[in-house]
Design brief:
Elements: H1 2-10, E1 14-19, H2 22-35, E2 41-44, E3 57-58, E4 71-77, H3 87-94, E5 97-107, H4 135-146, E6 151-154, H5 161-167, H6 188-198, E7 206-210, H7 216-229, E8 234-238, H8 246-255, E9 260-262, E10 265-268, E11 271-275, H9 278-286, E12 296-299, H10 307-316, E13 319-325, H11 333-339, H12 341-347, E14 352-356, H13 367-376, E15 392-396, H14 398-403, H15 405-418, H16 424-432, E16 436-443, E17 446-457, H17 461-468, H18 478-487, H19 491-494, E18 496-505, H20 514-528, E19 533-539, H21 542-550, E20 554-562, E21 569-576, H22 579-601, H23 609-616, H24 626-637, H25 646-658, H26 666-675, H27 681-688, H28 693-711
Parallel strand pairs: 1-5, 1-6, 2-3, 2-4, 4-5, 7-13, 7-14, 8-11, 8-12, 12-13, 18-19
Antiparallel strand pairs: 9-10, 10-11, 15-16, 16-17, 17-18, 19-21, 20-21
């Protein structure tokens, strides 16, 4: 078709901003839909309009199911009744639009004047959506109105496709190198990535970074096809979601037509490419069932996977490649660089990096890519301070940020850099979320540290009782409701709690105590505001536990399963700010410590011994009595069976922790794993590299002797 060919000839993508009343917008968009020979159109709305074929309409919440696919027309309905602008869906689907495609965004003519239907997900109890501000939507409308590359289409009465084509920017077609060395690759960048993957050597990890649409996942698929053809028996692949590697499997199937795909496996004779979810892969690697000599692992969207899991895989797989998006809605390559690359450099100093810069789905200076990045701040990065001025504390108002795009970009860039997964919806929460508080450390007008908080609790007694019994579940109040549901605390709901949602410090200012300063300033502000508890929730890791504990926070709860987002157990801590807060924190901490030994023996048997030791260190550390010392000595230098002295060895562990023995001490962790978590002889033997029960028992005796010596005062026997 000539008009579709014109779109493709320009090698660009356009955003059409269709404004008007709901019915007029739908009528105009349907005319465009039916007036073009679109190959893969998609209508995004809570409900499909009449006349659409089943499967052509997608609810915004299911946007991730289309990742890895391609569209040539996207219609996003943010105007109909019940419809709103879903930032995450917009970010996800914009990257699926190929060159020559149109993204049609339907909004009311006064978009940004009030919250839309999607704000129902943002309205935490007791707020209703209509009570919230709409600064985020007003910002989007202002940016679209000022963007010359946006095609404005007021409804009704506007002609559709030909006039729209005239408004599209003219972008030169990318030059195609006919002498490209690899016929399976679309760019030289992609060919180089495939070549490096195929010839990768042991202990030479490869890190591939790229913005969206550069073909990194397809490069992984091409490399898999080459490796299978060369006789490699098995290649493991992982990513935050199976949909993230769909293009990998599609490219693999194209290049290996004799192969067969079965779910998340691709088989070519007796060889295969196998997708394994991150948590399962970690379990297999720690059990020795994945990895080892000759094993290969390809990790896609690595920035959206916790650094702790990446580290486990790095140790287990001699050949491993990490592919990650630099600016994306699921994870930032900047955060990946800050969190994981230092460890990678320590453990594999000869790792290699490769950046893919040339786009495949669209032209190099495609106008839509830059526009989406500006709208969602996908490419936001911290701004380096121009001087070495000492930072100053500031309370930042969301209304001020909404009016200052430069400041907003710099502050949001800090949050993106410091967190595994910052989504477009987080920007909306920053500007319009109820109870959001922002504190910043600013040096020479540039933010070098930021703390983001949310207010929780304050329920009346009747509602608190119903929530604690599981009869009500008001939106939001994550920490307060969790403490009520799992610890049975009604007081956690009626008290006022302020939760630290995010804390970030610029990489150039780390190790300077700014994180402590941020929390201390926030604690002072919360105290002035009459807040009872300052709380936080994070993935349990010894370093983080030590940081929060040093600031006066105590552990109130530990999740029994690993969080999908972090790969770690969620830990909740709090610092009391009032007399009421002191009583509540003391009660919850005491109950947690009472339950901890039982949890470690059963539900938390797989918890890291270092984390278990850090949690045990918060409990009481009574002095060893004479009988305990005798029992421990009988194990350490005699022939007494360790299992018969388990209570004394448990007391030794707590005593040692109270006397300051580090939580990562090897002997301490061994006794924690054996004495509190019931680790089997086989598991301990695998961990220590020993042959069996006799050697494990000998090592337990040695650990008891070392810990007794370390935990005893000078001169004690």
């Amino acid at each position: 078709m000539a008009r579709a060919a014109e779109l493709e000839r320009r090698c660009c993508r356009g955003l059409v901003w269709l404004t008007g009343e709901a019915g007029a917008c739908r009528h105009a968009a349907l005319a465009l839909w039916q007036g073009g020979s679109w190959q893969s159109p998609l209508w995004v709305a809570p409900e499909a309009p009449r006349g659409l074929v089943e499967g052509d309409c997608l609810a915004p919440g299911r946007a991730s199911t289309r990742l890895g696919g391609e569209q040539d027309l996207l219609v996003l309905d943010a105007v109909s009744e019940g419809a709103g602008f879903d930032p995450d869906a917009f970010g996800a689907l914009a990257g699926t639009l190929r060159a020559g495609g149109l993204l049609v965004l339907m909004t009311p003519p006064d978009w940004g004047a009030r919250p839309d239907a999607d704000y129902a997900r943002l309205a935490e109890y007791p707020f209703r959506p209509e009570q919230l501000s709409a600064r985020y939507l007003a910002r989007l409308a202002g940016l679209l109105d000022a963007a010359p590359e946006v095609i404005r289409w007021p409804a009704p009465g506007a002609p559709f496709l030909p006039p729209l084509l005239e408004q599209l920017p003219r972008v030169p077609a990318p030059a195609v190198d006919p002498a490209s060395a690899d016929p399976d690759c679309l760019t030289d960048d992609q060919a180089e990535a495939v070549a490096r993957l195929v010839r990768q050597r042991r202990r030479r990890p490869l890190v591939i970074t790229a913005d969206r649409g550069r073909g990194k996942s397809a490069a992984l698929g091409i490399a898999c096809a080459r490796l299978l053809a060369a006789g490699e028996a098995e290649i493991l692949v992982t990513a935050p979601r199976p949909a993230a590697v769909e293009s990998l499997f599609e490219r693999l199937a194209t290049l290996c037509p004799a192969g067969e795909r079965h779910g998340l496996d691709f088989l070519l004779g007796d060889r295969r490419v196998r997708f394994v979810a991150p948590d399962e892969l970690t379990r297999l690697a720690q059990a020795g069932a994945a990895g080892g000599a000759g094993a290969r692992l390809l990790v896609d969207e690595a920035a959206a996977i916790p650094a702790a899991l990446l580290g486990v895989w790095l140790s287990a797989f001699p050949r491993i490649a990490f592919a990650t998006t630099v600016h994306g809605y699921e994870g930032s390559g900047r955060g990946f660089a800050v969190r994981f690359l230092p460890r990678l450099t320590r453990e594999a100093p000869e790792w290699q990096g490769l950046h893919l810069g040339e786009p495949i789905r669209w032209a190099a200076d495609d106008p839509l890519e830059g526009l989406v990045n500006r709208l969602l701040l996908l490419d936001a990065e911290p701004v380096p301070a121009a001087s070495a001025m000492a930072p100053a504390w500031q309370r930042v108002m969301p209304a001020e940020l909404a009016r200052d795009e430069t400041r907003l970009r710099a502050l949001f860039g800090l949050l993106v850099q410091a967190h595994y997964r910052t989504t477009p919806a987080d920007l909306r929460r920053l500007l319009d979320g109820p109870g959001v508080g922002i504190g910043a450390l600013v040096s020479d007008e540039s933010p070098v540290g930021v703390v983001l908080t949310g207010d929780e609790g304050g329920f009346d007694t009747e509602l608190a009782e119903r929530v604690a019994r599981g009869e009500r579940r008001p939106r939001g109040h994550l920490m307060a409701q969790s403490l009520a549901a799992h610890a049975g605390s009604r007081e956690a709901l009626t008290a006022r709690l302020r939760r630290v949602v995010r804390i970030a410090v610029a990489s150039s200012h780390r190790r300077a105590g700014l994180g402590r300063w941020l929390i201390e300033q926030e604690a002072e502000q919360a105290s002035r505001d009459g807040v009872d508890l300052l709380g936080a929730s994070f993935g349990a890791e010894p370093g983080l536990i030590a940081f929060w504990r040093s600031l006066g926070f105590v552990t109130l709860r530990l999740g029994l399963t690993r969080e999908t987002a972090t790969g770690e157990h969620a830990l909740m801590v709090a610092r009391p700010l009032t007399k009421r807060g002191e009583a509540l924190a003391a009660e919850l901490a005491t109950r947690f410590q009472r339950a901890l030994p039982g949890l470690l023996a059963f539900e938390l048997r797989e918890l890291s011994p270092e984390v278990a030791a850090a949690l045990l260190s918060e409990g009481e550390g009574p002095a060893l009595d004479a009988a305990d010392r005798r029992d421990v000595t009988d194990v350490a230098i005699g022939h007494r069976e360790p299992a018969l002295a388990r209570p004394a060895l448990q007391a030794l562990v707590r005593h040692a922790l109270a006397r300051g023995v580090p939580v990562d001490d090897e002997s301490l962790c061994l006794l924690v794993a054996w004495g509190f978590q019931g680790a089997s002889t086989e598991r301990l033997a695998a961990r220590l590299g020993l042959s069996g029960r006799r050697e494990v028992t000998a090592r337990l005796r040695q650990a008891a002797a070392e810990l007794l010596a370390a935990a005893s005062p000078a001169g004690a026997g």
